[in-house]
Write a structure and sequence with these properties.
By secondary structure, this protein is an alpha/beta fold. It is built from 10 helices and 6 strands. It folds into 2 domains: about 5-20 and about 90-215, Rossmann fold, CATH 3.40.50.1000; about 20-80, DNA polymerase, domain 1 (Orthogonal Bundle), CATH 1.10.150. It has a 6-stranded parallel sheet, with helices on both faces. The mean pLDDT is about 95.
Amino acid sequence: MNRQFDLIIFDWDGTLMDSEAKIVRCMQAATVDVGIPDPGAAAIRDIIGLGLSEAMQVLFPEQIPDRRADLVERYRQHFLELDNTGMPLFPGVTQGLTQLTDQGYLLAIATGKARRGLNRVLDETGMRHLFVCSRCADEAFSKPHPQMLEDILGQTAVDAGRALMVGDTVYDMEMARSAQVAGLAVSYGVHARERLLGSGALACVDSFPEVCAWVK
């Protein structure tokens, strides 16, 4: 079977897992703990996909670095320990990833999560074995810098022209473009279709089964 891609790289939050509500709640809780104004759910949704430090700079540019560092620590505590908001996988994710693996595609992850957080959800979902490698925001420059993708391409020895980045934010698409990797956007995450298509996505699909159908 002729195929266009050998390596499919997925964003995690908003692409494979529906974690938007928990991220928003934990960020709002962190602002209460630190004693600064809540920037609002829409602003928080917009920075999903960035590394935590970069997200805090966007959300709270007026705060001194030490205060933003406090926010990072409080957010992590809420996300990893205190908040119990559910984070289901999107419909069709487990079956779709398994099918792609069975069909010979290499799968990887490029995420704004920290390594500790990614390891936790990989273990909780039982999906670690499906991915050949992953890269997190505390191991490389944050999206949209291309380092995550460049590192994954190096680890897998796959040419950029044979790789596809799948994500729900303009940060994913801009990262892909900078790394000369094709980008496929999903509409069910945090950024609107028009923004995704305007940031270089080849297409924008509406469900995870459609992701798999588009790849094949």
